[in-house]
Design goal:
The chain is α/β, with parallel strands linked by helices. The chain has 15 helices and 19 strands. Helices cover about 40% and strands about 20% of the residues. The protein binds nicotinamide-adenine-dinucleotide.
């Protein structure tokens, strides 16, 4: 058992004032391996007060000086990347090689991208040549409550914390209680980088506790949240009484439109992408729509990919798939696989129960359904497990209609050799992101969604803007 972690408040490690113990479970073994305290109102109040005290000084720190501290944080993070990968792997079940290649470096990449974006960012700008005495000042929103999930822990923490720091905000981070240890390590890094006390504070807790207390707190100016649509709605309602700004990054049900002229790796790539991180990504391409003439071949390819996919514990090296994060997620995924069968989808690979050879750990069989219709539960609900739904389409028009027929709007994908068609389809998809022909979005590209997928944009210039107020000043001297 790892030692119980203190909170990081006002630049010091400090014992929780209130709250109960919570066990952190290794999803590969179902054994508890660490304990944290879930904070209470007194802890939240102390952390918010520390952030409030630090705000005027950090806001007035010139952007170049803020960036200098972020550069030190970059170096510290880089030097402890292997440790970060090991912690993430243990707490949320990502296989160690995947944690080293994707989970931990995602955090480093965001630190780098925000430093680059902040260097070029015009925190003060003229309104335009027609109004030479007008100035636009981009000012930090204030004290921010940052609430993050467990699936890409450092990706999501750095997307919020680094952007808020660069903008001049101060903050209280409440990471997911299911995967809190990566954030404790991150707080050690922040401490080593030498931020002024109170700029960054960490309190552990759950949604009904610290999460709700931050959302309701009169001294918190903004909540930035990533997680379920359910919690996003609850936070928005709680935050309404204090009129704080609420930035939401919620779930998704991405469509992957595979046209008959797609490259020959498109279906394999899409299936592997759906299973990456054991399907626990909000931008996973979980609905594969395939043009009718290529449909049966696509189903066969996806079946072969799923059947070849190895499953194994997080601490084993290699390119296998790990467990899902928790008993609750395991039960939810099992229920949805059963619903797929009950509602008449064709089970092509995988299915209910653990993969052969496992009787412990939250391991799920890589599962493919064909002949899914868009009204089935597995096509509508975010499963957050390794479950792919394939459905045929006849025309481009129909494919776009199916893709858009969802409450979500995070990421959609298009596979086609026809550039004009790709661009046409990209314009009509109602989602915050469209990725085509397997090309990842560039560094600093904004991440975020429409509709029930949320309202914020994280990463790069847009990520910093989310933490800024726009102040318009006239009569500016010395123009
Ligand atoms: P969740 O939304 O319950 O938790 C995410 C974070 O919000 C955690 O830190 C949690 O403590 C906090 N939280 C929960 N309820 C809250 C409330 N009422 N007020 C304030 N904070 C609250 O997500 P989860 O339980 O970790 O996962 C459940 C589902 O959420 C998943 O099945 C998946 O569909 C979705 N999810 C989406 C993403 C994403 O990136 N979009 C990430 C994780 C989970």
């Amino acid at each position: 058992m790892l030692e119980k972690r203190d909170f990081y408040i006002g630049g010091e490690w400090t014992a929780p004032a209130a709250g109960s113990d919570f066990e952190v479970i290794d999803p590969s073994t179902e054994d508890a391996f660490a304990v944290i305290s879930l904070g209470g109102q007194a802890d939240t109040d102390r952390a918010v007060a520390a952030a409030r005290d630090a705000f005027p000084g950090w806001m007035e720190t010139p952007p170049a000086d803020r960036i200098a501290v972020l550069e030190r944080l970059y170096d510290v993070y880089k030097s402890r990347m292997d440790e970060m990968a090991a912690v993430i792997s243990r707490e949320m079940g990502a296989p160690i090689d995947m944690a080293k290649a994707q989970q931990a470096p995602a955090g480093l990449g965001h630190i780098k991208n925000f430093i680059r974006a902040a260097r070029d960012f015009a925190f003060e700008r003229p309104l335009g040549p027609h109004a030479p005495d007008d100035r636009i000042l981009m000012e930090p929103v204030g004290v921010c409550g940052l609430i993050t999930p467990w699936n890409w822990p450092m990706n999501q923490v750095t997307l919020k914390v680094i952007a808020a720091m660069a903008a001049g905000c101060t903050m209280v981070l409440k990471p997911s209680e299911i995967a809190p240890l990566s954030s404790a390590l991150f707080a050690e890094m922040v401490d080593a980088a030498g931020f002024p006390p109170g700029v960054f504070n960490l309190v552990n807790g759950d949604g009904p506790g610290v999460g709700t207390q931050l959302s309701a707190h009169p001294d918190v100016d903004m909540i930035s949240f990533t997680g379920s649509t359910r919690a996003g709605i609850a936070i928005s309602k709680t935050a309404a009484d204090t009129l704080k700004r609420v930035h939401l990054e919620l779930g998704g049900k991405g469509a992957n439109l595979v046209f008959a002229d797609a490259d020959e790796k498109a279906v394999k790539r899409g299936t592997l992408h759906c299973f990456n991180n054991t399907g626990q990504s909000c931008n996973a391409p979980t609905r594969m729509l395939v043009e009718a003439s290529a449909y049966e071949q696509a189903v066969e390819t996806a079946r072969a990919v799923a059947e070849k996919m190895a499953v194994g514990p997080a601490d084993a090296e290699g390119r296998h798939m790990g467990p899902v994060v928790s008993q609750a997620q395991f039960d939810k995924v099992q229920d949805l696989i059963q619903k797929g069968i009950d509602e008449g989808a064709r089970l092509v690979a995988g299915g209910p129960g653990r993969p052969e050879g496992f009787n412990r750990g939250w391991f799920v069989r890589p599962t493919v359904f064909a002949d899914v219709t868009n009204d089935m539960t597995i096509a509508r609900e975010e499963i957050f497990g390794p479950v792919l739904s394939i459905m045929p389409f006849e025309t481009e028009e129909e494919a776009i209609a199916i893709a858009n027929d969802t409450p979500y709007g995070l990421t959609n994908y298009v596979q086609s050799a026809d550039a004009a068609r790709r661009n046409r389809v990209a314009r009509r998809l109602r989602s915050g992101m469209v990725e085509m022909n397997g090309q990842p979005r560039g560094a600093g590209s904004p991440f975020g969604g429409m509709k029930a997928s949320g309202n914020g944009r994280e990463g790069g210039v847009w990520g910093i803007e989310d933490f800024l107020e726009v102040k318009a000043v006239s009569g500016w001297g010395g123009a």
